[in-house]
Specification:
The chain is globular, with a radius of gyration of 17 Å. With about 200 residues, it is an alpha/beta fold. It is built from ten helices and five strands. Helices cover about 55% and strands about 15% of the residues. The chain binds adenosine-5'-diphosphate.
């Protein structure tokens, strides 16, 4: 049997397969498509950083930092936190030396303003994005997954609101990155391992 069919191919073969070193990726997809799970897996397979803006924000809230105190009303309501806060946070994270080994962004950008910022910020660091992966999953599956997750902002009302915000603010990014020629569409309605393999196959 071809080792590629085992689902372990990419893990066995390691990160060097067909790739010229450092990878800078973005994961797009509605809440609940599995961005967090895939980002973690990709960061391990490719030896790159996993940067989740949702996680960074939740840490600020848990530690009750000045930023944490400012953002909890947005997070709990399912609204986007103001761009100035999130952009500042990401800028600092990208300036840390470990980001040079590459990264997968999970939860950023979420609107065109953030995408423009990211573009100029990467240009300042003399680098650019390699790929943007848009993960798609049927809406019923997404709703089931979110309702099972038990996170504070996963109530039925907030979920509905977050999906609406995604539609209005984040969907335009699909076209934006399509035009930039770096968008990959992935069907995420499969096991986590299978989805990882699909992503790795299309970025190789
Ligand atoms: P999900 O993708 O399931 O919504 P996240 O952990 O990515 O989960 O985000 C949770 C919340 O964090 C969002 O609803 C929003 O309030 C805030 N957030 C995360 N990333 C951003 C961002 N790039 N811009 C603005 N708000 C953000």
């Amino acid at each position: 049997m071809d080792v590629r069919d085992t689902g372990n191919f990419w893990r066995l073969a390691g990160p060097a397969v067909g790739m010229k070193g450092v990878m800078r990726l973005i994961l797009l997809g509605t809440p609940g498509v599995g961005k967090g799970t895939q980002a973690l897996e990709l960061s391990e397979c490719l030896h790159i950083l996993h940067i989740s803006t949702g996680e960074l924000l939740r840490v600020e809230m848990e530690n009750k930092t000045p930023i944490g105190m400012k953002i909890d009303k947005y997070m709990n309501a399912g609204e986007l936190v103001p761009d100035t806060i999130i952009i500042d946070m990401l800028e600092k994270r990208l300036q840390e030396p470990d980001s040079r080994k590459g990264f997968v962004l999970d939860g950023f950008p979420r609107n065109l303003n953030q995408a423009d910022y990211l573009k100029s910020s990467l240009e300042r660091l003399q680098t650019s994005l390699d790929r943007v992966i848009n993960i798609e999953v049927p809406i019923d599956t997404v709703l089931n997954r979110l309702l099972q997750r038990n996170r504070a902002d996963d109530t039925p009302e907030t979920i509905k609101y977050r999906l609406e915000i995604y539609k209005q603010e984040t969907i335009p990014l699909i076209d934006y990155y399509q035009r930039a020629g770096i968008l990959e569409q992935i069907n995420g309605d499969a096991s986590p391992e299978e989805v990882t393999n699909r992503i790795l196959a299309c970025i190789a």
